[in-house]
Amino acid sequence: MSGARRGLLLLSGIALAVGLGGLLAARDLPFTAARGEILLGLGVSFNPLGALITIVLAAAAIWGALVAGRGLVLAAAGGFALAALQVLLQFGRATNWLGSRGSNLSFWLALAVGLLSLVWLQLQEAKSR
Amino acid sequence: MAIQPREATHDAAPLATQTSRWLLGGVRIVMGILWLTNAGWKTPPDFGRAGGRGLFRFTSFAVEHEVLAPFAFIVREFVLPNFTLFGWMVLLVEAALGSFLLLGLGTRLWALVGAAQAAVITLSTLNAPGEWNWGYYMFVAIHLLLFATAAGRFVGLDGLLRPVWARREARWARLMMRFS
């Protein structure tokens, strides 16, 4: 397995684990609660919708890395970038669809940039073969 | 089986061992998580100004418990009166620090940004009551260590991407080689 694919699976796996933990932490909150539940003191915070979106995007990235190909990983990276943008628009406001805060901006940005970089690396590796 | 002379084993560069590389990567990841966690309480839109809490309170320490007179002057005259803009800058820089140190991408650049941000935090809060001075000095020093050791090359994206950047002629690729 190439380093790029290993990296994709590692990043997506971490995202999936954090999303599942977020869902567990936020299980008693309203679906789109503006104030999410912070996961294990790590700063990232989720309401059930925010956690589900993280889980779905992470699962899509894993599926893309294993089976469906780079397009799906790119779509997942785009989804994480949009989630990061949501933090900029709604964090600290009365409406916060994903129950997110500044730490989520950092986390989702890392996933978007990381997945994108690794897809680019896969493309370069394919070209050089 | 070839036997290594004792001297060769003892003189081997510390980062040549797998354990050292994993440890260094681990320190970088911990610093990334530190910034990621602390981006959480920089809350827009006023960043604590209305209630004198949060980022506004900690930034005010630079004036109330002055460390360096010119820095206190800048905070009093420029930062506090324009606090919303300043708050957004802090949130964006710290969130990006969390992201890029966690990934190990452009690590040398972000380690320097981290050292600068840690120095600014130090100048704001060093003399505030109950603060442990050495914690702030370590905060700056660890970022300088990440810079000096190019810590993204181990367990990080820099390590995966540098061989590809090295083969490219483009200016951005050469920049990334420097930043990593």
> What would you call the structural class of chain A?
mainly alpha
What is the topology, as strand order, of the major beta sheet of chain A? 1-2
* Range of strand content of chain A: under 5%
Listing every helix as H and every strand as E from the N terminus to the C terminus, the arrangement of chain B reads HHHHHHHHH
Instruction: Name the largest protein-protein interface in this structure.
Output: A-B, 28 and 29 residues
Mean pLDDT of chain B: 91
C-alpha geometry of chain B: elongated
Oligomer: heterodimer
Secondary structure tally: strands of chain A: 2
**Overall structural domain count of chain B:** 1
The percent of residues in helical segments of chain A reads over 70%
What are the low-pLDDT stretches of chain B, counting only 5+ consecutive residues below 50?
A: none
Give the class of chain B from helix and strand content and strand pairing.
mainly alpha
Q: Into which percentage range does the β-strand content of chain B fall?
A: under 5%
Tally of individual helices of chain B: 9
Determine the N-to-C terminus distance of chain B: 37 Å
What's the gyration radius of chain B in Å? 20 Å
Indicate the mean pLDDT of chain A. 94
Q: Percent range for helical residues of chain B?
A: 55-70%
Are there runs of chain A of 5+ residues with pLDDT below 50, and where? none
